[in-house]
Amino acid sequence: MRKRLIFTLLFEDGYFVLSRNFRTQRIGDIDWLQRNYNFSRVAFFIDELIILNVSSTSQNKDAFCDVVKQVSRGCFAPISAGGGIRSVEDAEELFNSGADKVVLNKALYDNPQLIQDITATWGRQATVGSLDAKRIGDTFGFFSDRGQVEQLTSAVQSMVCEKTVGEIYLTSIEKDGTGQGLDLELVDFFQTLNLTKIPTIIAGGAGKPDHLIAALNHPGVGSVATANLLNFVGDGLKSARTQISESGIDLATWDIPSTFI
To answer: Are 183 and 224 in contact (CB under 8 A)?
Structure first.
């Protein structure tokens, strides 16, 4: 499979935010995003867009679905969306709002039956399991609830062995937002669990194209994601994709309208 470059948007209580170690900083609302990001253009330089609702007080489902609708209009890239999915109906609302896949985190631990119900309707390829991890001594642990509740590693191992989701979105809590590079030791650890080789997206720590290239050269990484809005304003994603391709990494190619080049 070809490697992929993914951009992630984080949405919290009506605003897009930056995250550092899962602590968020408000940046701007949908109007700010549309002024600074022309997603009909940006989407030609990424393989996928992920939009996550990270609201801590209320999931604001209607507002989030409206954001997914607005961003998806004219967006060339496939869109994955998640956050606060507690039922099949929640997933259906996101699919109806323009999402091609749904991203699930807490339900992986609390409600595995929900994953089965969603895949029974839309297929396993339409589901992404989001795993948040941080170091515990010489190993790593998995956490939910914005990194506050530790979960059993055995539950993660069971999930990947049974291939309950189509992809894994693996985030380093400690590297998140630091811009110091993605945690490839976390990838090594996850490979010991992911024996069935579910495609893995690594996130947390990308600050420049070299970080993306280093991660994509790792055999356990199929895709890299960055959520740093400020580093990738303007031609940042276009430049990053060019540098990744020039490094010899096999990315998909397609025709880009001359007005966007």
So the answer is: no
- How far is 128 from 52, CA to CA, in rounded Å? 12
132 in active site:
yes
Residue pair 224/206 in contact (Cβ under 8 Å)? The answer is yes
Specify the number of domains making up the chain. Answer: 1
Distance, in Å, from the CA atom of 204 to the CA atom of 161, rounded to the nearest integer, reads 24
The reported pLDDT for the residue numbered 195 is 86
Residues 34-74 have pLDDT tens digits of 887 777 788 889 999 999 999 876 557 889 999 999 999 87
Token duo for residue 96? 């109806």
| Domain residue limits at 118 | 4-260
CB 57 within 8 A of CB 48: no
Here the CATH number for the domain that contains residue 100 is 3.20.20.70
Active-site choice (47, 90, 132, 183): 132
For residue 56, what are its two tokens?
A: 């801590």
**204 in Cβ contact with 156 (< 8 Å):** no
- What are all long-range contacts of 144-152, with beta carbons under 8 Å and residues at least 24 apart? 144/105, 144/106, 144/108, 144/109, 144/110, 145/106, 146/22, 146/54, 146/56, 147/21, 147/22, 147/173, 151/109, 152/109
pLDDT in tens, 146-197: 889 999 999 899 889 888 999 999 999 999 999 999 999 999 999 999 988 9
Please name the amino acid found at residue 248.
G
Please state, in angstroms and rounded to a whole number, the distance separating the CA atoms of residues 153 and 150: 9
**Residue 234 reports pLDDT greater than 80:** no
